[in-house]
Amino acid sequence: MSLSKTEEDLMNHLWKLEKAFMKDLLDAYPEPKPATTTVATLLKRMIDKGFVDYKLYGKSREYFPLVKKKDYFSKHVNGLIKNFFNDSASQFASFFTKETNLSKKELEDLKALIDSEIKKKPN
Q: Keywords in UniProt for this one (predicted)?
């Protein structure tokens, strides 16, 4: 199950806030802010999909994510690798490093990160 672009935008605000009432979510958006009814509809769909839940305080709902941002994006990156790069992380890495105009510093940081992960792996 995945989120639409507008649901993902809302989910990013919720991940950042960790828990939020409707007012908090609306305040997190830049101008022009979406209508309250739009955000309510998105939240209902996200609850139905199992991404969000809420606690009731009187008539107010405090929303919180049920899915961690890292888990959501990890699943999508793995799906991307599987569907567009023949399930090959090497093909993905090759495409990513050649086609994204990374600076020399960014490439060096990426190499250091990979070297660090290699050292953690058992022989």
A: DNA-binding, Transcription, Transcription regulation
3-class SS of residue 74:
helix
Rounded CA-CA distance 12/9 in Å is 5
Distance CA 75, CA 14 (A): 19
Global model pTM greater than 0.85: no
For the chain, how long is the longest CA-to-CA vector? Answer: 57
Domains in the chain, please, with CATH?
Answer: 5-65 (1.10.10.10), 69-120 (no CATH)
The backbone region for 50, taken as left when phi is positive above 0, alpha when psi lies in -120 to 50, beta otherwise, is left
Per residue of the chain (123 residues), what is the pLDDT tens digit?
789 999 999 999 999 999 999 999 999 999 999 999 999 999 999 999 999 999 999 999 999 999 999 999 888 888 888 888 888 888 888 888 888 888 999 889 988 888 888 899 887
| Burial class of residue 28 in the structure, from the number of CB atoms within 10 Å of its CB (0-12 exposed, 13-18 middle, 19+ buried) | middle
